[in-house]
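Issue: copy button drops trailing tokens. Both records pasted manually instead:
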Amino acid sequence: MSPHETFFLTPSSKMEQFQIDNNPYIQFQIKDFPGNQELKETNAVDIQTIKGCGSLLYVIDAQQQEYEQPCTKLRDIIKTCHAINNKISYDVFIHKVDTDMFLLDDQKMDCLNDIQELMKQLLMDYNLSVSLSFYLTSIYDHTIYESLSKVIQKLLPQVGFISAMIDNLISNSKIEKAFLFDVISKIYIATDSNPVEMKHYEICSELIDVLIDVSCIYGIDEHAGTLKFDKESSSIIKLNHAGGSEEKIVLYLREVDKCLALVCLINEREFHKQHLINYNIDKFKEGLRKIFEAAKNAKKLQ
């Protein structure tokens, strides 16, 4: 859905549930509640929802300059949820930071600091100690996807092991940056330990768009009638003067599991060792599958 199409979406009037299961090893549910929903400790359905919740995502409209009311509501939600399930992590999307009100980065940071300080004070009043993260988001850039990626990563216990494997991969293959993407949602499941630069995430995300567009033309499974993304799926794109640099960067995408792709940024002078890179990625795929299987078996034993 393009950004302008979201203007025609009607506000949620009831709870809606979505199942995310693009990959057999990474599956979760999203429950979307309307803004006027109140969670109650006496409601059996609410209690069941809270008990099964790993992360609670709360959206604040940055354009409404009076933030006390939505922050107070969030404090009340946290108070109710914490009494039932104290393992929930709370994530706040400060959304719509893309209007004339936020032309400068300083204006966005002022908004973020105001909401953080207000929430800190409201939680202190009730002695609530919870994991609370804040993100500035917009539908007109990739911030919404990057922020969702960070929320999802906190729900996946195997992310730390996958990141360690990616670190090993980029070290042995002379790769500058690598992301493990869900190609359907464009959420990255894991990355290496180097800091994430938005320009790197954006360009890798756009490579996935190119792959999907080309696959829609040439990669449809004639028997199933579905988009074909399998072990043969890969893409190589060379960029000249990426990010203002004189060095040429190669974007290299390889399928590593169902609907999962490893997207790498590699300096062109290192890409002549593609056979070594492919060998290391194959070993990464084997390790990734073992991690997923181990996590799946551990879940069965719980």
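Record 2 (pasted manually too):
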Amino acid sequence: MAVDLHTHSTASDGTRSPMELVREAEALGLGALAITDHDTMAGVLEVLDAGFSFDTHFLTGLEISARPPDDFNRGDELHILGYGMDPKDPGLRVLLDRLQEARRERNPSMIKRLQAMGLDICLDEVEEKAPGGLVGRPHMARVLVEKGVVSDMDAAFTRYLGKGCPAYIEKYREPWKDAIAAIRRAGGIAVLAHPGLIRGIGPRGLRLLLGMMKEAGLGGVETYYPRHDAQMISTLKGLAWEMDLLLTGGSDYHGDFKEAISMGTGAGDLFVPFSLYTELLNRLEKG
């Protein structure tokens, strides 16, 4: 039986509501689902507050945008997944409020840059694409696609919204140690998301990074991921065994924002075994 421990809802930059994700996971026969929205647990709370009984096990989750260690800072961000946290933990909520406020401050400035290039776009119509209230670049891209400015989401990022493009503005990122600490204080396990996407790191750098993060409390590494090839998966398995890190995996499903990625199967060949979920639960129970 498969699981999917990396999905996004309308609470951040996905196109499926939290409850739609749960129903989709059940329809697919997945053994477990985690909603890991960017910098918010609003979607998780929506599912928990619904109080329904699901055939698919549900795990609280989160994906935090973090600033890398100085030795690995190439202008990118690290994404740190959290699992099993109390979504109402006060310390975690303070951290997430800070990240969400940074997003709110960034968005109008990016819209102004797009307008300065002569593009017909305003913040109100972008916010309409984010029913969960957390606006991001994918919502801007959706407006540009619908208005015929670009042909698809990828083109919007390549021409306007991606790093180094005319409308791009850097955002605040939580220091990586603080992100791990907040997840752990809220009762969760911190996991490095999709390390195979970190630019220019190489096997030796990956070993150093994971070792540094392990010392700070990292509990796992996302190993099964649509853009991880067999070599990367093998490397991560070896490092995880060596450092006593949990293996996790997921599709990074965003609904229509990433049309080539499906829940549970990613690009078609992803399989995250149920045993990884049970191992994660066992580690959470041990504290």
